[in-house]
Amino acid sequence: MPFAVITASDSRTESTDASGRVLREVLQGRGHQPVHGEVVKDDVAAIRDAISRAKGAGAQAVLVTGGTGISSRDCTVDAVEGLFAKPIPGFGELFRMLSFQEIGSAAMLSRATAGVTADGLLVFALPGSSGACRLAVQKLIAPELAHLVREVTR
After folding, report:
1. At what angle do helices 18-29 and 142-152 cross, to 10 degrees?
2. Domain hosting residue 111, numbered range
3. pLDDT for the residue 71
4. pLDDT digit string, tens, across residues 93-142
5. Which of 35, 103, 40, 119 lies closest to 76 in space, CA to CA?
6. Cβ(92)–Cβ(127) under 8 Å?
């Protein structure tokens, strides 16, 4: 499956983006092809523009890392939820459950979410932590990505 990784951060660069690297490595290891990747500022318009560029590059799934917490700068969830025609609430629920098993009650601070846009693009919003990204991609996204894309394109 063609996918894209977008990192929403005011401090990371391409060279310091460990979380984006983790997401690409795991998905490529499962046979998926990266078609787009970039680092953008924590800004709703910048995130939505990057998602649009990813779709234009042929991505069927976009993973956005960073900006899913509760600080004043965290706006990824606000950016992506407005694009969802069909939310996938189970993703966030399962991610927080698995995260709780690893980090305890701090898991409640994550607003990780996923959904499908009206034009059939899968979008996942993940925390900026490379450990959280590894957990999400290994346990939830990679095992179901082909199935999710098949369902969306039926």
Report:
1. 70
2. 2-152
3. 93
4. 999 999 999 999 999 999 999 999 999 999 999 999 999 999 999 999 99
5. 40
6. no
Strands 84-87 and 33-40, bridge-based pairing: unpaired
**Helices (H), strands (E): how many in the chain?**
6, 6
Number of domains in the chain: 1
Report the DSSP beta bridge partners of residue 113.
Answer: 125
CATH no. for residue 53?
3.40.980.10
Q: Which residues contact 28 (CB under 8 A, 6 or more apart)?
A: 34
Residue 137 is given by DSSP the state I
Three-point CA angle 8, 77, 75, nearest 5°: 55
Q: What is the pLDDT of residues 38-64, one digit of tens each?
A: 999 999 999 999 999 999 999 999 999
Q: Are 69 and 8 in contact (CB under 8 A)?
A: no
Question: What is the DSSP track for 10-75?
Answer: SS--GGG-HHHHHHHHHHHHTT-EEEEEEEE-S-HHHHHHHHHHHHHTT-SEEEEES--SSSTT--
